[in-house]
Amino acid sequence: MSVNMYVRPYESSDQDALLDLWLAASQVGHSFLDDADIYAQLRVLKEQYCAAAEIWVAESRSKLLGFIALLDDQIVGLYVSPAAHGMGIGRTLLEEAAERRQEPLFAEVYEQNSGALAFFERCGFIRNGRKEKDVKGRPRPLVCLCMDKGAAL
Q1: Which class for 109: exposed (0-12), middle (13-18), buried (19 or more C-beta within 10 A)?
Q2: CB 3.0 to 4.6 Å from 60: which of 5, 75, 119, 145, for a disulfide?
Q3: Neighbouring residues of 36: CB distance < 8 A, sequence distance ≥ 6
């Protein structure tokens, strides 16, 4: 199923909707994290990434459906509203980001987030490493993924 949407650059007026979407998506995809971890990550998103990252949002009828956040060629966030999963939004956001880069995109995904790993692999990303600890040094393995530029999204 697809949805009629368009992708545009993030604007500061999108922040509340983006944070709400991130929280809902994280509670589904990161169910292995406790509330304290989720809200700490929400704070980092709000205070750092909303200003520092290049963010593209997907919307339909003035409703935010998903977003992708990039730091150079690294995907630091790709989130889709749980109500809109399976509608091609994540793939569309990846396509938009890939078109704007000369180098392949890469990402790190919690190993426990099997849905995100499967999604990235369906979109042509390949596993190219693993980290035993997350950015805070906790034993939460991350899978490193890189876009195979030869693969079609």
Answers
A1: buried
A2: 5
A3: none
